[in-house]
Design brief:
444 residues; 3-stranded parallel sheet; 15 strands
Length: 444
């Protein structure tokens, strides 16, 4: 009797939703599939799918992946740049973009031809190396998100803590926005594909049955769920969705992480207050109209102020994300961001240095900028003692000031300051490495 094919879907640091989904689809097709987190447990499989969700993982887990034997396939957000994956990881195939149908085709091909790469050209949505050159096949069409199998849910899902949630459940795909730093519209497209509400509810029940308690819903901008217009929002569908999920989880255990400031209303905010943990997360990014335009964010400062005011009037807690060190950001632009952050007095702030994620316009722009003109690499005169770049120094100033800006100020202790400095240096180190990687430079 022929040995049954063994498949492992491995996610390096946490059970990300995409890995669980691929594993669930494979299991539904009758394959012997195992979902594994991390590299502590030895991998024994014929085919290994690696879910690579951060550029830095190409370096961080290089040695671990090298040691694993078998036919190795990489996918996830970093797959938008297959040449980068092949440069750093010893894998056989890169699945580009949405992989639900592609992974099935790959396994069927492997069952028939094993690792014969001459048979791969008819499989859509992949990249592979042949005679030392990277070959790309035809792109896949957008995946139908209706009626798909549920993800393979690990027994220890309750122990996961991804920004406060056990799992981020996908409600829709696509975003009409054009933000230069964001992968969503380039990975999933700009058309909105919403999952049937009954599929989502069934999936939530399955996660809860497996022990999950804290659920977050994702898909880019939460309120785009149910939208059928390019920039429209179907309030009724979104409100119905979070109400039904909340009936299962309880409001305190449901999070809606991301909402654009130009895609809310009083009714949506009232629903967020009543059916979720009562927080809203706005992508504000900058207080400079010039930088917002460079980012192609598609919002204006007045919209930001009005949305924050509206959320506050509806009794919703407000967190905001800010990006510093974007190409062409001047000290005046940064000061405008500081001033806006001060004026808004949010309940929480998230500050990050602009990261050039492969497959985004920002990454393409950063490739062209010499290091000596990149704010992440230019030494800050004001922070010589701390050895910070201009981008790191701006992140530090905004982080420190954000504890004073917020609705309930937080005293700045020596320990808190030390933590912030370490966070800034960690971000800076990460982005410097990623920048050199995408610019095809020596990273040692």
């Amino acid at each position: 009797m022929e040995k049954k094919l063994e498949i492992t879907v491995l996610t390096p640091e946490f059970y990300n939703y995409g890995a669980m989904l691929i594993a669930g689809i494979l299991k539904n097709k009758g394959y012997d599939v195992k979902l594994q987190k991390g590299f502590k447990e030895k991998v024994n499989a014929d085919i290994i799918f690696f879910s690579i969700h951060s550029t830095i993982h190409l370096l961080k887990y290089q040695k671990e992946i090298e040691k694993i034997k078998g036919f190795k396939i990489a996918g996830g957000p970093v797959s938008q740049s297959p040449e980068l994956i092949f440069k750093f990881l010893p894998v056989d195939i890169v699945v580009i973009g949405e992989g639900e149908s592609t992974v099935i085709d790959l396994i069927k091909n492997f069952e028939k031809y094993k690792d014969d790469k001459s048979t791969l050209h008819n499989i859509q949505g992949i990249a592979f190396k042949k005679n030392g050159k990277i070959k790309l096949t035809e792109n896949t069409k957008p995946v139908n998100v209706n009626g798909r199998p549920i993800p393979l849910i690990p027994e220890d899902i309750a122990s996961e803590d991804i920004r406060g949630a056990n799992v981020y459940i996908e409600t829709h795909r696509g975003c009409p926005g054009s933000c230069g730093f964001c992968q969503v519209p380039y990975f999933f497209g700009r058309s909105i594909r919403s999952r049937p509400i009954e599929d989502i509810i069934f999936e939530v029940k399955e996660f809860l049955n497996k022990g999950a308690k804290r659920i977050a819903i994702s898909g880019g901008t939460g309120t785009l769920y149910g939208s059928k217009k390019f920039r429209g929002v179907d309030e009724n569908e979104f409100i119905k969705l979070i109400k039904e999920i909340s009936n299962l989880t309880g409001p305190k255990n449901l999070t809606i992480p991301d909402i654009r400031v130009d895609m809310i209303s009083d009714d949506i905010l009232e629903a967020v207050k009543n059916y979720t943990n009562g927080w809203i997360y706005f992508g504000i990014e900058s207080g400079s109209e010039k930088i917002l335009k460079i980012m192609k964010k598609g919002i204006e400062i007045d919209q930001i102020k009005e949305s924050v005011k509206l959320a506050r009037e509806n009794g919703v807690k407000i967190a905001g994300s800010f990006i510093v060190g974007y190409p062409n950001e001047t000290e005046e632009d940064f000061q405008a961001t500081l001033d806006l952050a001060d004026e808004l007095m949010l309940d929480d702030y998230f500050v990050s240095i602009a990261e050039p994620i492969p497959g985004t316009p920002l990454a393409e722009e950063v490739k062209k900028i010499p290091l000596e003109k990149n704010l992440v690499f230019i030494d800050s005169e004001e922070s010589k003692n701390q050895n910070l770049s201009i981008a790191e120094e701006r992140a530090l100033r905004l982080m420190v000031d954000s504890y004073i800006f917020r609705s309930i100020p937080v005293p700045m202790s020596d320990q808190l300051l030390k933590t912030i400095i370490n966070e800034v240096k960690s971000q800076g180190s990460h982005i410097k490495t990623v920048t050199k990687m995408i610019k095809n430079m020596n990273i040692l």
